[in-house]
């Protein structure tokens, strides 16, 4: 048993696992750089090892040198190392560990290589798990590097990269917390001043573009809508037929009145012709004339009622309603709204402000309207009217209705919806931020 010699490959693998474990146990970047510069020797022997950090601005810093506790940044060796790394990084980019000799092109670096370090170098880049470069190691030996040694160093560099990346994130978070602790009173003072600054209050609420002076088309009589003659939002001219009411009873009434008129008219003519010969017939003529006029009035009234059942547009514009199928067949009362005629070029903004978001709003209050179909486009408007009582909205919420006219020549297409930013009076930022929480506390706790 004593004659069995240990396998060098197993020893190298064991050392690799041991060094990798030590690297993963370190608690700071400085400890990691020490392990990289000195303990890597247990995996592959070398004469010198430089640990280098390179940031995104290509600034290079030599952090550790093997067998040196704290390298002097102004030392010629450190300056030479800082100049060598960018040259190697540019030539080999983000490749894995690569052997390089002292035959580099730059004469000043070539002279320093012969003066400061061993002739055979190993360029070892270290990256994050995502592939972002952190820096790496430059290792120098008096003997050429074997493929096995290069593979071992490449594996160890992957572990170094994971630890470096994790500790760097932790250090960044820790530095931020330390900075906040050291300057907490400054930040608290700045926050207090900021919260006391007066700002314009505002609420974001739903809004809709509506006609400014719509003509309400109501039912002229009680009945049932028989047919809608136009499409929703269609352009109509004055006198165009909009809808008709069920007219069967009116037509029957007109027919009966017409027949009664014919009978009376025939009787009147017969008596009028005999009036020269018959005293009785002459006496009945005035009475029959009165009856004839009454029946003619009934016919005229029936015709007028029949014409009223055919509702026409009083002016040109857009016929605004939801759906013809929903209106057809619906019973309506006298004066019940069916649709409106609106001028598409004369619109205003209808804003519904929920009770919980109500602000003190005066006339000429500024409003900015953002369209749902194009959030990057906005329209300016000014409040002209505000309801003093909350009105139940289609979604069953109670809200104050505000009317606003667009400023200048701006106008939005009828029917567009969006979000209105309604401004109120100035108040401290703290009040603006905590207004709704304060209101909730009053309602809930009575404070």
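^ Assign residues to that structure.
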């Amino acid at each position: 048993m004593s004659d069995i010699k240990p396998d060098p490959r197993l020893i190298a693998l064991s050392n690799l696992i041991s060094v990798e474990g030590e690297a993963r146990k370190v608690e700071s970047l400085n400890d990691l750089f020490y392990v990289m510069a000195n303990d890597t020797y247990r995996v592959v022997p070398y004469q010198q090892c430089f640990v280098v950090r390179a940031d995104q601005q290509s600034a290079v810093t030599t952090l550790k040198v093997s067998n040196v506790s704290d390298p002097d940044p102004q030392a010629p060796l450190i300056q030479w190392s800082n100049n060598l790394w960018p040259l190697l990084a540019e030539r080999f980019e983000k490749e894995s560990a690569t052997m390089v000799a002292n035959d580099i092109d730059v004469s000043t670096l070539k002279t320093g290589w012969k003066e400061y370090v061993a002739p055979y170098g190993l360029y070892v880049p270290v990256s994050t798990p995502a592939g972002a470069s952190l820096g790496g190691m430059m290792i120098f030996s008096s003997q050429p590097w074997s493929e096995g040694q290069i593979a071992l160093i490449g594996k160890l560099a992957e572990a170094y990269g994971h630890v470096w990346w994790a500790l760097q994130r932790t250090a960044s978070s820790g530095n931020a917390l330390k900075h906040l602790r050291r300057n907490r009173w400054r930040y608290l003072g700045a926050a207090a001043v900021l919260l006391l600054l007066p700002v314009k209050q505002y609420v974001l609420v739903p809004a809709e573009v509506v006609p400014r002076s719509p003509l309400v088309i109501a039912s002229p009589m009680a009945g049932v809508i028989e047919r809608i003659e136009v499409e929703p939002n269609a352009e109509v001219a004055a006198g165009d037929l909009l809808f008709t009411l069920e007219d069967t009873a009116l037509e029957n009434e007109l027919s009966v009145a017409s027949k009664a008129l014919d009978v009376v008219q025939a009787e009147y003519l017969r008596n009028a012709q005999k009036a020269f010969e018959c005293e009785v017939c002459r006496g009945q003529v005035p009475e029959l004339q009165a009856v004839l006029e009454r029946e003619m009035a009934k016919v005229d009234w029936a015709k007028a009622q029949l014409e009223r059942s055919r509702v026409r547009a009083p002016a040109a514009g857009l016929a605004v309603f939801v759906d013809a199928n929903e209106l057809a067949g619906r019973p309506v009362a006298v004066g019940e709204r069916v649709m409106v005629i609106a001028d598409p070029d004369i619109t205003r903004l209808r804003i519904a402000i929920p009770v919980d978001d109500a602000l003190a709003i005066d006339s000429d209050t500024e409003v900015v309207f953002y369209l749902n179909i194009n959030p990057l486009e906005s329209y300016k408007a000014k409040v002209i009217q505000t309801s003093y009582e909350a009105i139940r909205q289609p979604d069953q919420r109670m809200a104050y209705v505000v009317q606003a006219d667009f400023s200048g020549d701006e106008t939005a297409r009828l029917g567009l919806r969006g979000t209105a930013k309604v401004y109120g009076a100035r108040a401290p930022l703290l009040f603006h931020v905590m207004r709704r929480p304060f209101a909730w506390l009053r309602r809930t706790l009575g404070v």
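Residues 138 and 343 are 79 Å apart (CA to CA).
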